[in-house]
């Protein structure tokens, strides 16, 4: 379903030489240098390295798009959140009306924002909301499989088509956010499955729940893992048993973005759970991922360590919506700008003492 080309290391030394040749001490731009190298490996071709000066072929970030996928979760009825499922719809209406944090950040920073109803209790009738509904709510994961195999497959198809449409606009950098009451429980279950750890190490406070609800949340995840243990073998099965409609589509959208050689900006806890599943499906997708931030959710740092990746930002965010990914865009743009436009020692006639 996804034909993803692994990013080649063939020209890594030449790219590194360009970075090292800029008018700065070696490594002085820290993680920006690693980020610029990652983007160069994705975007530059063999032809670019056949020219006398690689800098004649600049990196580009074109038409940044961020899609928020929303879905409702049957597990919310188990008392794992401070908010009822109805809040998912209310927040989708807020997105459509331009009033949420992700609207503000997208407008400020230059993201084209898309809102997708992946399956919420009641649709929001707005031209600003794209319907890719797999149902109106998933089954409680501690009692049943979250959804059917057919729903997972439909979610993959919807997400792939959505990303293709965005790619056709010329976009080469894409991010995803989520909205769904109960989805930190879903992400915790996915994390525990992928990392083979107990629920107590994966479950956090989400939007700010009490100690009592944290314990309830742990119990629900433990029940779900025990119920589905024999079926948690591959990405699609994990999504069928433990996933959410929005998590299914984010996972597939990441795979589709990599297929189209787009830079993928990964948001927080829930989106990182989707990223883990996308990588399990096809390891090459990781080459295209930039991890935007380490959230305030207690399991997120463990996820990032397990994936062996460094986030760009540490702001204590735990809002979701793609807000961390949105805020990372200026950092990514800075990495591209220094690679493209910063003078080399030779060009600036500065003595290279590195």
Walk me through this protein's architecture.
- By secondary structure, the chain is α/β, with parallel strands linked by helices.
- The chain has a single domain, classed as 3-Layer(aba) Sandwich (Rossmann fold), CATH 3.40.50.10210.
- Strand 5, helix 11 and strand 6 form a beta-alpha-beta unit.
- The N and C termini lie far apart (47 Å).
Strand and helix map with partners:
Elements: H1 12-20, H2 31-43, E1 65-71, H3 86-97, H4 101-109, E2 112-119, E3 129-131, H5 149-167, E4 173-179, H6 183-195, H7 199-202, H8 211-228, H9 235-242, H10 245-259, E5 263-266, H11 269-281, E6 289-291, H12 300-307, H13 323-341, H14 345-348
Helix pairs in contact: 1-2, 2-13, 4-13, 5-9, 5-10, 6-8, 6-11, 9-11, 10-11, 11-12
Question: Rounded to an integer, what's the Rg over CA atoms?
Answer: 21 Å
What is the overall number of helices?
14
Q: Looking across the biggest beta sheet, what order are the strands in?
A: 3-2-1-4-5-6
User: Structural class, from secondary structure content?
Assistant: alpha/beta
Mean pLDDT: 95
List keywords for this structure.
354 residues; alpha/beta; Rossmann fold; 6-stranded parallel beta sheet; 14 helices; 46% helix; 9% strand; Nicotinate-nucleotide--dimethylbenzimidazole phosphoribosyltransferase
What is shown here, in short?
The chain has 354 residues and is α/β, with parallel strands linked by helices. The protein has one domain: Rossmann fold (3-Layer(aba) Sandwich), CATH 3.40.50.10210. Pfam families: DBI_PRT.
């Amino acid at each position: 379903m996804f034909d993803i080309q692994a990013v080649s290391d063939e020209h890594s030394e030449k790219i590194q030489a360009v970075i090292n040749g800029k008018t700065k001490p070696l490594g002085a731009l820290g993680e920006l240098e690693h980020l610029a190298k990652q983007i160069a490996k994705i975007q530059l071709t063999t032809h670019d390295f056949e020219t006398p000066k690689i800098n004649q072929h600049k990196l580009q970030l074109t038409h940044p798009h961020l899609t928020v996928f929303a879905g409702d979760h049957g597990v919310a009825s188990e008392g794992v959140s401070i908010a009822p499922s109805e809040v998912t719809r209310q927040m989708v209406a807020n997105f459509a009306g331009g009033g949420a944090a992700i609207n503000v950040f997208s407008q400020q920073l230059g993201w084209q924002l898309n809102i997708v109803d992946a399956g919420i209790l009641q649709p929001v009738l707005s031209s600003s909301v794209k319907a890719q509904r797999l149902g109106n709510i998933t089954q409680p994961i501690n009692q049943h499989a979250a959804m059917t195999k057919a729903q997972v497959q439909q979610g993959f198809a919807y997400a792939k088509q959505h990303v293709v449409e965005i790619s056709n606009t010329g976009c080469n950098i894409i991010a995803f956010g989520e909205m769904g009451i109960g989805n930190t429980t879903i992400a915790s279950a996915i994390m525990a499955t992928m990392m083979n750890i107990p629920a107590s190490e994966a479950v956090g406070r989400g939007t700010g729940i009490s100690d009592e609800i944290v314990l309830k949340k742990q119990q629900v995840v433990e029940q779900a893992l025990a119920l589905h243990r024999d079926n948690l073998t591959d990405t699609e099965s994990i999504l069928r048993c433990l996933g959410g409609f929005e998590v299914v589509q984010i996972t597939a959208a990441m795979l589709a973005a990599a297929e189209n050689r787009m830079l993928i900006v990964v948001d927080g806890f829930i989106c990182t759970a989707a990223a883990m599943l996308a990588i399990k499906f096809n390891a090459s997708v990781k080459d295209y991922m930039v991890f935007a931030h380490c959230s305030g959710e207690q399991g997120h740092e463990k996820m990032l360590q397990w994936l062996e990746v460094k986030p760009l930002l540490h702001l204590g965010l735990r809002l979701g919506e793609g807000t961390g990914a949105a805020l990372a865009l200026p950092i990514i743009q800075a990495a591209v700008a220094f690679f493209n436009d910063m003078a080399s020692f030779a060009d600036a006639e500065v003595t290279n003492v590195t």
